[in-house]
Write a structure and sequence with these properties.
By secondary structure, this protein is of the alpha+beta class. The chain has 14 helices and 23 strands. β7 and β8 form a beta hairpin. α3 runs antiparallel to α4 and α8 runs antiparallel to α9. The N and C termini lie far apart (57 Å).
């Protein structure tokens, strides 16, 4: 271990994240994905951000630094540029890269030059005639929040203060503006990354005013619902957060708000606030989340509680159990925000249900946002795609892309995967919590001393996990092994002896002992494919089923069907035999599921409604592929949910 200090510790979090350098993916699934982000994805992102035609571009900072010019892209461009820098920092912290580091330093120089004398920093305001704090759609808060987060990470990784000082000046300007609590300013914070950023800045600097300001932004939400310019449920501003009972509105701004509130609870231990975000998380997860972990079902939704106006909400949560497949929105940023929020709830509670959601997102709709090549991306993540007849709504695309009219999702993907080792473990008092499985290493300090362990697994393609102790403190230490809710039959052996794995649902198995070098834990998780049905309230997939193996959702693509057969022509029997097979070519390294699907009788009538055809036309032999791998071939018709046969 290199002596790197632990990350700032929040007084009221049950669990704590080890310092970044203390955890590494050393092989397997996530090491390969991190490598792809390093060699392909981040370069694709940076190239796009140097293109003035892209929705997010560094040219805006250069224009301000040069004394003026035209603003290009979306008003949240600055924030997405900061997310790309966060990706670079996480990648270079894992493995030094001189070229990426030089690009980072060059970008910081132009950011510094773009900052105004009083600390304000938003290129979309400086380069236009838009006034400061005049329209919540200008995304000033979103941009600043990502600046704060990236600046804190830069200081932690490099020890340099150049970007941190920029963030401090910007945060001080923000504090002076909003500490007044002026009602006409209370509506600001449409996409509130500034709350998470301010708490992170408080942790990094110890300046209490940043935590105070973060608390003000939470209190402002819903405090003045009738203010002109307040957009109600669109940005969770109709009901005060402490009184909220459901997940409503925009499915990025909501989780960003609730994740920021969770950060505040870690520092203040406010029970009413914790109760509120727990209620909302349960509504989001148990009534409004897709099987893939995606949230934000609707391109355009309606606020039913805004009667009689019925406000339209963009990129929205729907009603309970309103989860359409082919029109599913599921913005990549929203899905990852769901994991970010769940990570914070996990640190507060140690409750394994939050880790299950993180895993569900990351192996499915958090990963589906980037191509298998690592160079192309997608914004929305439907659960069905109908090919040439598919309705293409706002931010939908029939193919993955490298440039886009809203470029927030690519750097969201790159920063999350680049930093996913941060979510693998937590520590507590004389305890280690194992959240994510794969091939990795932990080497960190507990109160009683150093603990080092190695984990080896071909997860998620294998349920076999081996953990070996390489160093342990004197005295008893507890290892908490996560038992996922999807593992119906779990086996654990400690130094060859079976351990009782009691309980149901997502939980942690606590193993307490005086550990010694060479101690070995063998964990066998049940990743047998399961055929799942949704609750009957989910009308859109009633009498349909989907397949999961471990945390991985599978889908059927038209490319894997014989000529003349489409995804509309087959069904899935309740007793179907799903045989794991090794992927080849494009899918090398992945596990596919071979299956025989009954071919349904052809529809003989063009009428909208016709008698049921009961005779099947034999079976079709095909494979199901992991959902995250769809849309990498020419025939990208796809279905997660298939009609149930029998």
């Amino acid at each position: 271990m290199d002596g790197t200090p632990v990350t700032p510790i929040s007084a009221h979090a049950r669990l704590h994240r080890p310092a970044d350098k203390h955890v590494r993916w050393t092989g397997g699934f996530w090491a390969e994905k991190q490598s792809l982000i390093r060699t392909e994805s981040i370069l694709s992102v940076l190239d796009a951000m140097e293109d003035p035609a892209n929705a997010a571009c560094f040219g805006n900072f250069r224009a301000v630094a040069a004394g003026g010019g035209s603003f290009r892209g979306r008003y949240w461009s600055d924030g997405d540029c900061y997310k790309a820098l966060e990706s670079i920092l996480l990648l270079t912290d894992v493995a030094p890269d001189a070229a990426l580091t030089q690009r980072l330093e060059d970008y910081i120089e132009i950011i510094a030059a773009a900052q105004e004398a009083d600390g304000y920093l938003n290129t979309q305001i400086t380069l236009t005639d838009r006034g400061r704090w005049t329209d919540i759609q200008n995304h000033e808060m979103y941009n600043l929040g990502h600046l704060f987060t990236t600046a804190c990470l830069h200081h932690q990784v490099t020890g340099a203060r150049c970007l941190l000082e920029i963030a401090i000046r910007a945060a001080d300007n923000l504090f002076e503006t909003f500490i007044t609590r002026a009602p006409d300013l209370a509506r600001f914070g449409f996409n509130p990354s500034q709350i998470m950023g301010l708490v992170e800045l408080f942790r990094e600097t110890g300046e209490a005013r940043y935590l105070e300001l973060a608390r003000i932004f939470v209190e402002n939400r819903g405090a003045h619902p009738d203010l002109p310019g307040n957009n109600g449920d669109q940005s969770q501003a109709r009901v005060p957060l402490l009184e909220e009972t459901e997940a409503v509105g925009h499915a990025v701004t909501g989780p960003y708000l609730w994740a920021g509130a969770a950060d505040i609870v870690m520092e203040t231990d406010e029970a009413p606030l914790m109760a509120a975000i727990t209620r909302i998380w349960e509504d989001s997860t148990h009534r409004k989340m897709y099987i893939t972990g995606g949230i934000g079902a609707l391109h355009k939704g309606t606020s039913e509680r805004s009667h009689p106006r019925y406000e339209q909400i963009a990129e929205a949560y729907g009603r309970p159990y309103q989860l359409p497949s082919d029109t599913a929105y599921n913005e990549t940023c929203a899905n990852i925000a769901n994991a970010m929020w769940s990570w914070r709830m996990l640190q507060l509670t140690g409750d394994a249900r939050y880790a299950d959601v993180i895993e569900q997102v990351m192996y499915n709709t958090g990963l589906s946002g980037v191509s298998l090549s690592g160079t192309h991306f997608t914004y929305s993540n439907p659960l069905r795609f109908n090919g040439e007849t598919h309705f293409i709504g706002n931010n939908d695309s029939p193919r993955r892309w490298t440039r886009w009219t809203c470029y927030c999702c690519p750097p969201q993907v790159t920063r999350t995967i680049a930093g996913l080792h941060r979510w693998a473990y937590s520590t507590g008092e004389d305890a280690v919590w194992v959240h994510l499985y794969g091939t990795n290493a932990l080497d960190t300090e507990l109160g009683a001393g150093r603990i080092a362990l190695r984990q080896e697994s071909d997860f998620p393609w294998s349920g076999a996990v081996r953990l070996q102790i390489e160093e342990a403190p004197e005295g008893e230490t507890t290892l908490h092994l996560r038992i996922p809710g999807w593992s119906e039959k779990t086996e654990v052996r400690l130094n060859g002896e079976a351990v009782d794995v009691a309980g149901q649902g997502p939980r942690y198995l606590a193993l307490t002992r005086q550990w010694a070098r060479g101690d070995e834990i063998e964990l066998t998780l049940d990743i047998r494919p399961r055929i799942l049905a949704a609750r009957p309230e989910v009308e859109e997939v009633r009498n349909q089923v989907a397949v999961m193996a471990g945390p991985v959702v599978y889908c059927l693509e038209g490319a894997d069907l014989p000529e003349g057969v489409t995804i509309n022509d087959v069904a899935l029997p309740a007793d179907a035999v799903l045989e794991p097979v090794a992927g080849e070519g494009l899918f090398a390294g992945l596990t596919l599921l071979r299956v025989d699907l009954p071919r349904r009788a052809a529809r003989e009538s063009d009428a909208l409604y016709a008698p049921v055809a009961v005779q099947d036309h034999g079976n079709v032999s095909t494979v199901l592929i992991p959902y995250f791998a769809w849309n990498n071939r020419d025939d990208n018709t796809m279905a997660v949910w298939l009609p149930l046969k029998g």
